[in-house]
Amino acid sequence: MSLTLFHRHVLEDYLSDFGTKANPNHLAVIRRPAIFSVLAHRGHDASVENELKSVEGIDVRDCAPGEWLVVSTSAGAAAIENLLADIAGASIVDQSDGRALLRVHGPNVRKILAKCVAVDLHPDSFPIGTSANMLCCHVAVNLARTGADTFEIAVPRSFCGSVFEEVMEMGREFALTAAFADS
Amino acid sequence: MASLITCPHCGTRPKEEFSIRGTALTRPHPAASEEDWHRYVYLRDNPKGRYQEYWHHAAGCRRWLVVDRDNVTHDVFSVTDAAPARGASE
Question: For the purposes of burial, counting CB atoms within 10 Å of the CB of A43, is it exposed (0-12), middle (13-18) or buried (19 or more)?
Fold first, then answer.
């Protein structure tokens, strides 16, 4: 992983960080998530998925048939790489410096995201634990529901500033605030 | 975002997530005649009505799909993954 990209977050210039208090609707930028792309080799889709689901301490996000994003906000990239290295029939690529992770939460989060994505985010059709690739503010991102009022967006690094500004714009009427997450 | 395509992997999505390659033609055999290859590479019908096309779900699962739709009414009859059909001929 490139050290420069690792130590200077892409949203550093977008967040003034003057210690403003977080409002109920808040966007937290995770500073150093470990994000891996996992691709199953032909015919190994089901076995790789089972093995991924049995690994503890990681979140598995669905991208496509036989393709996942593995996200961890607690462990470092090296630790996750070791965990995933044992999985047979899968290719693993470290995306930690290629993706930024935004966590949006609050009572109005669905109303905010309704202006960003064209997918129905009602709990009946997008329950907790669901994730998918979709267009968010004209950028292909991976959106996951991690709680009743919490969503996580994994954005390609170079598009992150644009997505961030647009989500903040859509959240203005709900007083959306943003800051780096403490952890 | 009026035109909705139901991707077999991702569900109903707006057409903005896709890019369209063109008619879903079957590739000729490598030893096919030059006329067959010329027809496959350059010549296209321009039908009015039902039409099968390759669509790429660029912002979603990034899979190639075959979309069977009517280009007059934009009724979508079926959307299938392009890989199984191709795998059978390989």
Answer: exposed
Give ipTM to 2 decimals.
0.83
- Distance (Å) from the alpha carbon of A170 to chain B's nearest alpha carbon: 18
Chain-chain contact of A118 with B11 (C-beta, under 8 angstroms): no
Contact A134 B10 (CB under 8 A): yes
Q: pLDDT tens string for chain A (183 positions)?
A: 556 666 788 888 888 766 678 899 999 999 889 999 999 999 899 999 999 988 888 999 999 999 999 999 988 888 899 889 888 899 999 999 899 999 999 999 999 999 999 999 999 999 999 999 999 999 999 999 999 999 999 999 999 999 999 999 999 999 999 999 875
User: What are the structural domain ranges in chain A?
Assistant: 9-31+97-180, 34-94
Tokens of A59: 């979140």
Fold of B4-89: Folate-binding fold (3.30.2270)
User: Alpha-carbon distance A174 to A50, whole Å?
Assistant: 40
Residue B8, chain A, CB below 8 Å: the answer is no
Task: State how far the Cα of A53 lies from the Cα of A72, in Å rounded to an integer.
Answer: 13
- Decide if domain A9-31+97-180 falls under CATH 3.30.70.1290: no
